[in-house]
C-alpha cells in the first residue's frame, strides 16, 4: 500500500447529535460537545461536516522496537521484542505526564511517520516481533486505527498490546479490547481527588474498565502506578488500592510501582525514592498481590518474578535483561510445579534491553 495516499481523516461511530446542533463524542467519559470545526480535548477527534472524525489515522509520532518489559509487561512473552508506536494527543490532562511531548502535542508535525495497518503488521513480522504495542499516547483516542492494525496483526499471529489509562465508555471499550491480547493498565491513584485534580478525569470509569477486563475478557493485563511524592504514595492509599485489586481482580494481576521524575507541569516535586517504591511493593505482597514490582529504579529483587508458593526465583531481571529462567515449558515453577500466571513461551526471549528506532518506508 502507498502510505502517501493513506487517508488520515476517517469517520468514527461513537457520537450523537445534540438538540442545539452540536455533536457529542461518545468514545470516552469526557463526552466532548463540539460545534462544527471544534476538536475534543484529545485533539485528534473533531466535528467535521456534522460527524466526529479521527484526524490522525495512519500517522505516528514514531516507531521503535522495545523489550516488552518496558511497557511494562513482565508476564506476557518475557524477553521478546515489541514494535511500539503512538500518535499524538490524549483524553486525560495529567500534570505529571512523562510523555508530554507526544501526548500533549497539538501539532500535526509531531506525526512525521505514516503507516497503513498492513504495513505495520508486515514490519512487525519482518523484524521478528511477537507483538505490537499501542503506546506513547493512549490508544483509545486512535480507536479506529488501533483496531485496524490489530486486525492485520491477528492475521499474522502477532499479538496486540494496549498501554492505556482505560478512560473509555462501555460500547467502544467492548470493541477495542476484543482486538487486544494484552494490556498495561495505568491505575494512576486510588482517590477521586487525585484523578480530578491532576488528570482532569475521574477514578470510577477506570475501575469499571479494570473489572470489565478481568471478568468479561481474556485479555492478559498488568497494572502500573506512578508514585508521586505526597500525591498518591501514602501507606493508607496503597493499602486501600492493593486490597481493592485483590478483592476485585484477584491475586494474580501483577502490579508495577514506578518512580516519578519531575516533568511537564509538575516540576516542583522530588523524584520518588527507592524506599517508597519498595514500601509499595511490600504492602501489595502483604495484602495478597502475588506479583508486585518496582520500576524506573535499579532493583533486581523488585524487578524479578518469584513463585508465590515456594519463593523460587522464576524470572530474574536486571532492568530489562533476563538473568534467570526457572519456568517449565508450560509456565510452571521448576521447583514445586505451581503455575505462574501469565502468557509464556516455552523459552524466554533474548531481545535484552535494546531500543531500536525504525522507519517503515521499506514496507509501504
Overall residue-averaged pLDDT value: 93
CATH class of the largest domain: Alpha Beta
Q: What is the N-to-C order of secondary-structure elements (H for helix, E for strand)?
A: EEEEEEEEEHEHEHEHEHHEHEHEHEEEE
Q: Give the CA-based shape.
A: globular
Count of domain modules: 2
Q: What's the β-strand tally?
A: 20
CATH superfamily of the largest domain: Aldolase class I
The computed structural class is: alpha/beta
Helix proportion of residues, in percent? 10-25%
| Tally of separate helices | 9
Fraction of residues in β-strands:
15-25%
Reported for the largest beta sheet, the result is: 9 strands, mixed
Question: What gyration radius follows from the Cα positions, in whole Å?
Answer: 20 Å
**Uncertain regions spanning at least 5 consecutive residues:** 105-110
CATH fold title of the largest domain: TIM Barrel
Q: Which CATH architecture of the largest domain would you pick?
A: Alpha-Beta Barrel
Distance between the termini: 5 Å
- What strand line-up does the widest sheet have? 16-15-14-13-12-11-9-8-20
Quick overview:
The chain is built from nine helices and 20 strands. The protein has 364 residues and is an alpha/beta fold.
How would you describe what is shown here?
This protein has two domains: about 5-55, no CATH class; about 60-364, Alpha-Beta Barrel (TIM Barrel). Helices cover about 25% and strands about 20% of the residues. The protein has helices spanning about 100-105, 115-125, 145-155, 170-175, 190-200, 205-215, 235-250, 275-285, 300-305, and strands spanning about 10, 15, 25, 35, 45, 50-55, 60, 60-65, 80-85, 115, 130-135, 160-165, 180-185, 220-225, 255-260, 290-295, 305, 315-320, 320-325, 355-360. With about 375 residues, it is of the alpha/beta class. The chain has nine helices and 20 strands.
